[in-house]
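Journal club side-thread
Mid-discussion, someone asked how the predicted structure for our own chain would compare to the paper's figures. Pasting it here so we can look after the session.
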Amino acid sequence: MDAGRGASENGTGHSPGGTAGGTGVAGGVVEAGPREGGVGWVGAATGRALLRRLAVEQAQNRVPSIVAAVVRDGRVAWFGARGRVEGERPTWRTQYRLGSITKSLVAVVVMRLRDEGRLDLLDPVGRHLPETPMGEVTVAQLLSHTGGLTAEPPTGWWERTPGVAVPELMARLDGGHVRHRPGRRYHYSNVGYALLGELVARLRGVPWLEAVREEVLEPLGMRATTERPRVPHATGYAVHPYADVLLPEPEHDAAAMAPAGQLWSSAADLARWAAFCAGETGGVLAAETLAEMREPATVDDGDAWTGGYGLGLQLTRHAGRRLAGHTGSMPGFLATVWADPADGVGVLYLANTTSGVSRSLTVDLLDILEEYEPRLPEEWAPSAVDPGLLALTGLWHWGPTPYTLRLLPGGWLSLAPVGGGGRASRFVPRADGTWVGLDGYYAGETLRAAADHLDVNTFVFTRAPYDGDAPVPGGVAGWRTSGEG
């Protein structure tokens, strides 16, 4: 097997075009004919290991069919498929239901509205949907599932029955469907995203899906993502727990609840979405807005903090990675997409089973990629710096505590305690000659530099501990040298 070719036994470890090659997704268009051994594709050993993990998943957990992909640097590095759809191996373009991954697409449009000034994340939703009885809940709380709303609508089992229209859903909701004080805790709410979908429709003047299609799907080239299934698509099944037989699951238009989980998509489109979550926004969102969506607004597992939620994106931590994306579940279907923006990688799967896919599948695929083909660090090279900034570098003291100030590329500064830990922050330059904190304790705060001191939001750092010649608030009486207490 060629070194640049992914494992292709039984047609399951290959490129979308049938050969191993680089498949571009960053520009929003999947290449029709990937090049043989194209840039970004994994080697034979890696492809085989990835394929085996997928094959074990499908066989041991009795999944009717499953497709998976790994994305690196905006390009598909590997694609695999196991099982059968209508007697054939599922392909790169076979549709499966996304379930709650739909929520992230709706959230992007909400953030676009915020960036346009059409709404504020602190707006009570009642400002835009005056008929809702939970109008005090904010837009940000709906996005992050911290509004305290009931998880499911006051209808029949909405995932398995035809949906009701928005006016009927609004009429059925009342104040009793707020289960927790808004802002108190994480409580996943499908109802909250039904409200966000209607908010989008009101502010855009078109149905929520039309806004998502025009503002997200089309610009990203995700043309196989649709409201209802189209050929080729998988049928959703439940697998009997004690026998190898299948039960076809129902599929309906969820109507008012559709923004919570209606959409169908393919591995090709979901790979583009993984690249988006990793930072390849294609102009759909500003980079800083996407970064804001990935910030943890709440955690859902207490002190462990392995899982949480941002603004429309689920978060999880694994093996030093902080992943952003979403899981999805609807009758007969499971899906997951994760991206690590720090490493430029993404992973996804789509399966037509109600339950059974291991929660570890996606991170296992990432671990295999890291084990077999770890990323090489970028080569270090010297850079041109402002001599005036160079003079600021070195040792400073916050009272008696030593800090190191380092100059980063682009005129950024890093201020961190000697030995690590503590109040470490990076600062980015402003046009007025000051810096603003990017992260850590001083995020958003201003740093001003003088020859003999740094002022970080009134905290004074001096070259010597409590330097008497620098403007230390409160004055400095001098260090006692006699040894007396």
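Post-session note: The first helix runs from residue 44 to 60.
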